[in-house]
Amino acid sequence: MPERLLRIDEIDLGGGTQSRRAINQTHIEDLSDALLAGDDLPPPEVFFDGEKYWCADGHHTVLAHRKADRDRVRCNVHNGTLEDALWASYHANIKHGLKRTPNDKAKVVRAALAHPNAKGMSAREVARHCGVDHKTVAQYMNKPDMPPTDGVVAPGEFPTNPIFQVCDPPQEEVENPPEQNDGGIEPPGEFPTNPIFKGNDTTQQTPRKRGRPTREEAARRANSKRGTPLWVKVDTALGVCTRGFDKLGIQNDQTLAAFKSLHLALENC
Known about the structure:
This protein has helices at residues 25-36, 59-67, 82-89, 102-114, 123-130, 134-142, 215-225, 229-248, 253-268, and strands at residues 3-7, 11-12, 45-48, 53-57, 72-79. By secondary structure, it is α/β, with parallel strands linked by helices.
């Protein structure tokens, strides 16, 4: 492929060849700083149809050159149409450049399946070209309008897909135990009311009353539950949700109050 030094205003960044959902301004600034520091960036991949140079890969690089007040950028030039540039753009950033987000990948898969080159291709072939799992492609083949299934939602929305299950599986129902249990054994969560005997000691211990546990008993229970598998699951789930809401910028008062209550409950469980 010939490498040419093109004027930035010659390169067309439109036409739908930007496979990402949005341009990352921070990445542009980082690349621009690298250029000003004397570093070389990988050349963008462009397709020339006889009239226009369509950028298939390297949009951030072109914009970084513009930000660094450069008027030209060295590019790898291919002969091809806009359709060729679009198909090549679905293969961009698989192994290099800024890492694609799950929503970026969803956009690529949808666009690739609608491209003429994908007609007659299997899910594995399309997935190989797009750099995604073939099961993801198969899902969009069967349901073209399906939203991303990666748990990523738009800012301000709540995820509807289960990420993981934090509750233990339901237990089988059992018959109510008899009121009297030999040996002082009580149903879970109840305080024993029957006499408790230890070994051959026939001295009856003073039975404890039913009702609300004392502060010492509540503290003992909390310490015994802390660190159990279920406690860890719930604590992890709350942490993931809280960080996700912070990242999405959710500041809903009711939501924040609910999570604060859950954290307090977790601390006192």
